[in-house]
Amino acid sequence: xxxxxxxxxxxxxxxxxxxxxxxxxxxxxxxxxxxxxxxxxxxxxxxxxxxxxxxxxxxxxxxxxxxxxxxxxxxxxxxxxxxxxxxxxxxxxxxxxxxxxxxxxxxxxxxxxxxxxxxxxxxxxxxxxxxxxxxxxxxxxxxxxxxxxxxxxxxxxxxxxxxxxxxxxxxxxxxxxxxxxxxxxxxxxxxxxxxxxxxxxxxxxxxxxxxxxxxxxxxxxxxxxxxxxxxxxxxxxxxxxxxxxxxxxxxxx
Length: 253
What we know:
There is one protein chain. The protein is α/β, with parallel strands linked by helices. The protein folds into 2 domains: 3-103, NIF3 (NGG1p interacting factor 3)-like (Udp-n-acetylmuramoylalanyl-d-glutamate--2,6- Diaminopimelate Ligase, Chain: A, domain 1, 3-Layer(aba) Sandwich), CATH 3.40.1390.30; 107-221, NIF3 (NGG1p interacting factor 3)-like (Udp-n-acetylmuramoylalanyl-d-glutamate--2,6- Diaminopimelate Ligase, Chain: A, domain 1). 35% of the residues lie in helices and 24% in strands. It contains 11 helices and 11 strands. Strands 5-6-8-9-10-7 form a 6-stranded mixed sheet. The chain has a 5-stranded mixed sheet with strand order 1-4-3-2-11, sandwiched between helices. α7 links the parallel β8 (168-177) and β9.
């Protein structure tokens, strides 16, 4: 299967129409769309280290969640760190697909993966653009018990939480930076909200807002989408070798 053929398959499954207007995702770079794809590297971020690894290990394609190119490039020179990566990739014949907000919204994407991992069932979309997911846990539990489950389920290095003194039953999730969805989660009837990043001011107001808030890390709440991408590649062409790589560059002491 060629780069173009594989991208069309992804585009059918994760359509561009789901992307937010401010977003930039899709086919990020490609030197030759007719190139055959035999090795695919799946990652959350296209870092310098990931680019070097893809080139040295002879991958034909990188599939990421966060866009390789988010803001417009005014020039392709080595003075800009994003442009440097693009130049390296193009000259080494490595293409990049990035599926960002469309992968947040699509069935089976970021937020469905997150909800499933932490035991939130019968999840349905909520919020602006229907990006988030809200559902219920099997058994109502205390907040600290649920926080421990979240941490273990997504292998987070640290989890912050703010107690609104609710037991946990109806849970809303938004992977990544979800501070703008707290109000929508409350309006949707959630007693607990899980996201990667919520922020100090909102966390401080949890009891007043009446919703438990759990901040489990941007990377860790979105990394599960890599399994979704891997499954799609295997579905579209089972002969393609697929590897997942950890791109987290943020460490905690």
